[in-house]
Design the sequence.
């Protein structure tokens, strides 16, 4: 297949591109800079220049492809509203081309806010609706396009897609620990964070694309996603396939802080939950969330078996020492 990938040179995107090219797909990657374009060309990827604000580039990329994998996001934590608007506009542009074509459309989402007091599952419907919601409510927007001829697949990534070279949430937690001279966790440290290694995340995207391309015009429940029958309470699969890129259901923030402390040889301490934002800065609100998530249905559907190191193993091996 000819696959148009946004975020192709990014952290998850580059791992995904490697999996897609290894599987024999022809990949076209969106690149907003010369450096990104050069990196993609070095991997044998065709480059389309543009970014999330260049809606014409997005439409042209989608029109010239057999499938679209949308992984790019501005992730501007200083102005999340702007990131949400850009994400909404980008997905609307891509859908405007894909509707009526029955072509696969995979887009990145997350597991935050799906369930309280238990691990979330693929059957949980995202509560994020509308342009002002996180990620512009694009998961529900895309999954709602199933009846308009789009094979929509939501890729719900764990908040931590880890590995050497990661500059995401865990790198920020490590940086705070180094700056503060203490590796801290919020409250009693029992809130849980799911994780997945970057290599496993890239492989899941490739498997999800193969499933979407091989499934009938209706995916999700009709394709046999376990535990998410159409019409069941809270099920999202009646509107498309939902996949959880989660290898570890949920490590406690205390266990993460202890691993960071070992790596940096720092003391480990609790920070009162109401002072998390003061201690951790912008990431405090995220690190205080309980986001345990299951991927049992995804594993059964795709035969996906994560094999990369765990987050704690990565930390103990020093993968984030230079973060």
Sequence:
């Amino acid at each position: 297949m000819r696959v148009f990938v946004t975020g192709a040179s990014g952290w998850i995107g580059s791992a995904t591109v490697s999996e897609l090219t290894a599987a024999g797909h022809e990949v076209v990657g969106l690149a907003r800079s010369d450096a990104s374009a050069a990196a993609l060309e070095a991997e044998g990827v065709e480059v389309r220049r543009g970014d999330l604000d260049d809606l014409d580039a997005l439409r042209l990329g989608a029109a010239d492809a057999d499938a679209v994998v949308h992984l790019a996001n501005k992730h501007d934590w200083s102005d999340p509203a702007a990131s949400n608007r850009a994400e909404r506009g980008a997905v609307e542009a891509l859908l405007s081309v894909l509707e009526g074509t029955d072509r696969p459309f995979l887009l990145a989402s997350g597991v935050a806010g799906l369930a309280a007091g238990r691990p979330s599952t693929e059957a949980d419907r995202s509560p994020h609706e509308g342009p002002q919601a996180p990620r512009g409510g694009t998961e529900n927007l895309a999954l709602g396009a199933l009846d308009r001829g789009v094979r929509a697949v939501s890729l719900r990534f764990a908040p931590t897609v880890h590995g050497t070279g990661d500059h995401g949430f865990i790198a920020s937690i490590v940086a705070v620990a180094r700056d503060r001279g203490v590796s801290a966790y919020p409250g009693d440290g029992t809130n849980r964070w799911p994780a997945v290694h970057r290599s496993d995340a890239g492989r899941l995207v490739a498997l999800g694309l193969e499933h979407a391309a091989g499934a009938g015009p209706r995916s999700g429940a009709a394709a046999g996603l376990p535990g998410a029958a159409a019409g069941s309470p809270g099920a999202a699969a009646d509107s498309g396939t939902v996949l959880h890129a989660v290898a570890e259901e949920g490590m406690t923030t205390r266990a993460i802080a202890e691993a960071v402390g070992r790596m940096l040889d720092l003391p480990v301490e609790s920070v009162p939950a109401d002072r998390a934002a003061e201690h951790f800065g912008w990431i405090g609100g995220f690190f205080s969330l309980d986001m345990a998530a299951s991927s049992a249905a995804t594993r059964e559907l795709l035969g996906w078996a994560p094999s990369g190191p765990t987050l704690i193993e990565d930390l103990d091996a020093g993968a984030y020492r230079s973060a």
Remarks:
- The chain is about 35% helix and 20% strand.
- The CA atoms of residues 88 and 138 lie 6 Å apart.
- Residues 80-98 form the longest helix (19 residues).
- Confidence is low (pLDDT under 50) at residues 216-239.
